[in-house]
Amino acid sequence: MSIDSRDVGGWWSAFVKGGFNWRWLDSPRLFYRPKLRYSTQGKYITFDGMGREKLHDELFDATIDPETAEYVELYVQAPANLCVLPNATWKRTVIRNVAPLFVRFANIPFSYVPEDRRYNFSSYTPEDWAAVAFMWIPSMLLLQLTMLILDYDQPAGKNSLMYVPLLYGGYRYPRLARHYSENRRELAVRREYDPSWASSTIGTYRTFRPRRLCHLIFEQQVDEEGNCQEAVVGYNLRFLAPDDNTPYVFVAYTTAQFNIHEGTNDYEMLMALALTATGEYIKSIQGAHHAPRAIWMAHSCTPIDKYLADDGTECWIDANTPQGRILQEKLMNDDTYSISDVLRGAERVIIIAGNPLRPSSKDPLKEWGERVWTLPEILLAKGDSVSVYYSLHDGGKIESVSKSMLPTLAWEDSAQSRQLIDHFTNLHLSRLELMKITVECLMSRNLKSLYAGDRTYALMGLLRIRPPIDTTDTSFQAFARLSLPQDNDRLMERLICLLPNDLSENWELMTDQYRCSLWDIEPDTQVCGVGENDSVIISGAKGALIQWDMFSPVETIQRQTMKRMVFLLIVIYSPFLFYTAIGLISAGNKTAGGILLAITLIFFMLPSPYYIWKINGGKIHASEPCFFGVEGYLPIKIIEERIFGMCLNRLQWSPYGSPLSRHIEGTPTNERHIQYSDSASGSQLLPKQAERPPIGLIIGGSEGGMKRAIACSLDLATGALYRETVFRIPTRCADRMDALGRVRLGLRRPFLESDVTLGYEKPNPHAPSRGRFEFNMHGQNVHSEHSTYGSNQQLHPRPPSPPR
Questions:
Q1: Which UniProt keywords apply (predicted)?
Q2: Is 408 left (phi over 0), alpha (psi -120 to 50) or beta?
Q3: At 708, which helix (H) or strand (E)?
Q4: Residue 679 in contact with residue 621, Cβ under 8 Å?
Q5: Contact 457, 438 (CB under 8 A)
Q6: Which of 116, 364, 683, 686 could form a cystine bridge with 353, CB 3.0-4.6 A?
């Protein structure tokens, strides 16, 4: 989209065009109402940065007032052509010129020169010089009035040495706190015997034996050679006593091949194949120590209708009573929790590949390998090989397959899964690498999920510390609970710093637009709890507020040369000398007054626009830190003119702060096509992408010599900050940010399609559904693209607000 100075003409240009709204008491006064709004969802309560409680009837896009810490409506400055688009839920306002008035008045003679040669005097045409001369006198006269006009000031609560503080106060009780005593009372009671609590001496991490096994029945049979051998002819289902250490095999199958319901043909066929395969395996290891005497199968050895009491009797469960349903749920959770221990205790893993009653065109072993649970079944199996029983062959055939070869035979993601096989044999991965690669492998497999966190529970069996299963957990909450007790991996702290390739993609993919892995990030924060609405509680972060409503004057430090000091004194005292000359003439001393007036006018006041240029030109040694936000793309020259009053190439694009930034090598005489400053005075622009205007930045960690700054939007209904995008900013910028209290941070803001409806006007169906955001940051300038709510946007469900 082409942007020029006509699109950023300021409030007077917008006032002439009309179509705006006006308010008198607050700034910005001129604004445009959003054409979309949030659906009414009932009353909700917010707690601002000072802990004040407030009841709201309607949801709106909000930011935080840096002076009062209250939640206020979000106003986003944008070019004139974007202000009228019907594709936003936030209010828009025009871009103002906040440069000092004396600089703006000094620029009046040059404002009539075309932008492409305005700052290159050698390229001026005679017409350009004529325009400058014609407007020079009015510019000089206006400069004398600047002492009587109030100029723009810094926002209230701003320290000129620091960024605007982010006074966030949305912390509430977590769903699960890292520290035992910080949980709600009812949760703390349940967690007292949580084996994943590192300080606990009660409880166990492991299940020592299965609940029930299919004990094999053997008969002595004579083979063709006349040898007497044991043959498997049946089985008995029995619960295991505390002293029962019967060796067993683990039989793996897939419900895609066997529709298991007791009494069906598939059930009987699976049991027959399991007994046959186990018998063949036992024959192949005749005389071996600990020959299996039982088999374990998920559908028959994990009953939820009965259990073994402490006195050794089998008790039935009545599912029609509340106590019975609770007990059944506990048994299901315990079986899921302990399946990895059952795998580790099995003497052998036997895979049943194919069902003779259901022949398929797919390779039976590859069809089996599509299951999520096949990953831990192979990784945790004893030895270097597993047995595969091909039931579709004539008479059946059992083979011993090396674990290292199984990825190419059974799994599509052989490159990733082979790394996991090597980890459990001889080539060990770090825990971060193990978890990331495992999650990638689990995501590529099919899952008939009983709970939302089933993939995490499959991953849980590969780790030493395993938290109890919570059936109410979402996939993210289950993974966050799993990562909390894992020693010092700090997995969640690293995960929140990633910028996904697609902002709407599943977090489990763990992609990063900067092409970094979790282990490349060194966290600066600590996750101290799991929150509601797929959020985590972080502590120890630094942050700053983004100024969206308008630019503000930026204080700068320059080297005070003798010439600059003389020009400054002339500009300051020329009005005083002018009025002194007028006074002398009025008192009758016309000679002295006339001489003083002529000197003042010719040497002091007439060249004053030139003096202003020389005073404000040159290099900047330091600047006041600020984060500015603009919706839409703006050229650097326009941004610099609106902030500093003139374009002196003080803003540059960042060469490595964004995936959209690219460093281009210049010619030998110009080493860098994109330049940046190493001092805090340097200002850089980063192209970025975001869905909504983020109100603040939170420093999450370090990577590649830069800080990862998480740009977050505020959701009033849940009181949480949600990640919109991630910047890479210089380390020195973090030193100018204030420390934050505990922050509830989510990776993805929850929405439903019905959450956004038509507002004040009917939107234009042909209006573009994408715009751009630009963040202008002194010490670091940021530019971001954003997509607003449109008919093609996929929104996500909003869970209920968490309790206070």
A1: Membrane, Transmembrane, Transmembrane helix
A2: alpha
A3: strand 706-715
A4: yes
A5: no
A6: 364
Chain Cα centroid distance, residue 330:
34
Q: Which of 136, 163, 103 is nearest to 647 (CA)?
A: 103
- What does the alpha-carbon distance between residue 646 and residue 638 come to, in Å, rounded to a whole number? 9
Mean pLDDT score, 540-559: 89
Taking the CA atoms of residue 427, residue 428, residue 432 and residue 436 in that order, the dihedral angle to the nearest 10 degrees is 40
Count other Cβ atoms within 10 Å, centred on residue 235.
19
pLDDT over 70 at 123, yes or no: yes
CA dist 521 and 131 (Å) reads: 56
Q: Which pLDDT score, from 0 to 100, does residue 796 have?
A: 34
How far is CA 559 from its chain centroid? 41
Say what the pTM is: 0.81
* pLDDT tier for residue 679 given thresholds of 50, 70 and 90: very low
pLDDT digits (tens, 9 = 90+) for 685-697: 665 667 789 999 9
CB atoms within 10 A of CB 584: 18
Tallying the residues shown for the chain, one arrives at 804
438: number of Cβ within 10 Å: 24
Round to whole Å and give the CA distance between 75 and 33. 10
Q: What is the pLDDT of residue 696?
A: 93
DSSP 8-class letter at 799? P
CA–CA distance from 545 to each of 16, 42, 537, 694, 803 (Å)? 32, 29, 19, 9, 26
Per-residue pLDDT, averaged over 734-745, amounts to 93
Are 493 and 372 spatial neighbours (Cβ–Cβ below 8 Å)? no
Q: Tell me which amino acid residue 786 is.
A: H
| Token duo for residue 742 | 């505990």
Closest to 79 in 3D by CA, of 31, 27, 10: 10
